[in-house]
Known about the structure:
Layout: H1 3-10, E1 38-43, H2 47-59, E2 64-70, E3 75-76, H3 82-86, E4 95-96, H4 99-105, E5 108-111, E6 114-118, E7 123-126, E8 129-132, E9 135-138, E10 142-144, H5 167-178, E11 184-189, H6 199-214, E12 219-224, H7 233-243, E13 248-251, E14 258-260, E15 265-267, E16 272-274, E17 277-280, E18 284-286, H8 288-292, E19 305-306, E20 311-312, E21 318-320, H9 333-351, E22 361-369, E23 375-385, E24 390-393, E25 398-399, H10 405-423
Parallel strand pairs: 1-2, 1-9, 2-5, 9-21, 11-12, 11-17, 12-13
Antiparallel strand pairs: 3-4, 6-7, 7-8, 10-18, 14-15, 15-16, 19-20, 22-23, 23-24, 23-25
Helix pairs in contact: 2-9, 2-10, 6-7
Amino acid sequence: MRRRDILGLALAGSAWSSLAAGAGPVRHKRHGSHGRLGRVVVVGAGYGGATAARYVRLLGAGRIEVILVDQNANFISCPVSNRVLGGQKTLEQLTFGYDALRQEHGVRFMRGSVTAIDADRSQIMVAGQRLLYDRLVVAPGIDFIYDDFPILAEAQERIPHAWKAGPQTRNLQRQLAAMPDGGVFTIVVPAQPYRCPPAPYERACQVAFYLKTHKPRSKVVVLDANPVITSKRALFERAWRDLYPGMIDYVPGSEPREVDVATKTVRTAFDTVKSDVLNVIPPQRAGRIAQQCGLANVEQRWCEVDFLTYASKVLPRVHVIGDAIDAGLPKSAHMANAQARICARAIVDVMLGQAPDPAPAFANTCYSYVDDRQAMHISTLYRYDPATGSMRAEGSGILSEHPSAQEGRDADAWARQIWGDVLG
Length: 424
């Protein structure tokens, strides 16, 4: 943000109204009362939503009331969660509260599921009451598509995807620990786009590390619907060859044709694989609230936005950020965090009567752990292209030469830094 804008906002003071109780509409004072600019409601408290809530408060210098709504009481980090499978982390180490956002930044947290968005009346329905807003930010994350295999939707205890960190992560770790030495752990990778392109291959590394340490006669099979490894291909191929020779069988172009839940068997066009542990990662789309409210207008799957403000192309006073948007960009935590900061700045500019930044830019960095100490990364700079109205990558990005322990330490530092930026 421009220095003069920061100084101007800092002089504005910090006052905000409380969330009313009861089943009726939650009301607030509009712009012009005691210097307040209005209310921003943020739906979804993950990497994108929590960041947006924090930065609207910061950049608005307390003049904008912010309410953050989520059905979960805590933030659980998907990045680093593959290390729970490898045995280096526990889920508790990746779980954080929202206390700093509330106590240090004045963000009001409201727990509940959003059931409707009424853009005409600038209100949402949550926890049985109407909540009014001046601007709405929706960060719904992803949901899963079970159209081809509806049985999997009811079989998550037996075949967990663990693609949202939480109880399924712990379930998959328990299944891995119970697997016999000499068993088969199979990962089924969906066709792009999906959340975090390198994460399935990082998962293969972490599972292989655990098996190499505890069950060395076992195998990891990766059935990939994509024709090649979708991110850091040469680095993953090298890591598998050097660290886990003969342990990881990678089979590209292997879209599942049939899944037998009882026997944990997957049939593709070329082969049939029976597993002791089966980890099917389903195809993905924008989170449920985006589907229900018509925000997912691209193939009824992803949300189209204006990249200057992240305003929806369907509902212009509703902003959409994170994995749910149709961007042609990697769906990653770092990306969601960066988009949220641009969105927050644009919302504050608009509420101040100023034009948003005409040339936003951000970088995306993604680390992947290959064993208990070593990691590797790719970093890419993206700039707004006014000719196409899209975010364009500048070059092919900066890629690690090889995994290293130093990059493992860098990855740990990255995680701590982004958690601090997201949660305050």
